[in-house]
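User: Can you help me understand a structure? I only have the sequence.
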Amino acid sequence: MTQVLDKPQELTVPPEAHAARRRSLLEWIAVHALGVAAALFFTLPFVFVVLTSLMSDQQALTRDLVPDTWEWGNYREVLDTPGFLTWWRNTLLYAGLGTALTVASSVPVAYALAKFRFRGRSLSLMLVIAMMMLPPQVVVIPMYLFWAKQLDLSGTLWPLIVPMAFGDAFSIFLLRQFLMTIPDEYLDAARVDGCGEFRTLVKVVLPMAKPGIAAVALFQFFYAWNDYFGPQIYASENPGAWTLSYGLESFKGAHHTDWNLTMAATVLVMAPVIVVFFFAQKAFVEGVTLTGVKG
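Assistant: Let's start by predicting it. Here is the structure, written out as tokens:
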């Protein structure tokens, strides 16, 4: 006896569900299309620079977008340029030491403005904000006369590095905003356990403020690495004290027709900043995001 199976009934999807799915698909396309367009807007110039840096001298002057032969030796030729490694060393000294001094000098001031109650606290914060609004070009002449004429430090990077040991207005404000998000109960508990203010800062505040410190350190590192104005003012007379940003201008002038070498030098200047941000972007974004939670 053969058993006859009933045919399964076809499921019917309501028109409202079709409309909802179509609307959801269109929204997904719109959102991701804008994201892809923004990504291409920021990525394509960098891709163009990298591809041009790997072309030959003659192809770099054409409209070609992809190298016929991948000339990796362009980077070796740039690194062998007299002075280029010295510019690298000077930039690492300026950016690395300057960042360390800025963080070390800004954290205590930001901690005091965020957690201490003292007379003149609001005025001090207003002065910090006012210093953020003051362009460095306003004081460049008296500062140059002080460092060059009084201390005889022209032709070096020390006029740019030493002031970072006395704090930075933007770094102090950013750290202060982040430290305001740390509950006072943690600090009170540390004081009850017998910790002084310095030990409370080191043992309690600093571990909790790592994202904010990372954000400040990255801002300062990027600023020093890309700084052109400062080295031009203080170090232009001494090629041995040039940084990458200032030396790149000289390199471009010497190789004004060798666009492949100029682009290779540009990639070598940009690469450390991109690598540092790639590995520290999580802490950077978190630190910047939390600075405005509590005022």
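Now, to help you interpret it: The chain has a mean pLDDT of 85. The CA atoms of residues 178 and 291 lie 4 Å apart. Let me know which part you'd like to focus on.
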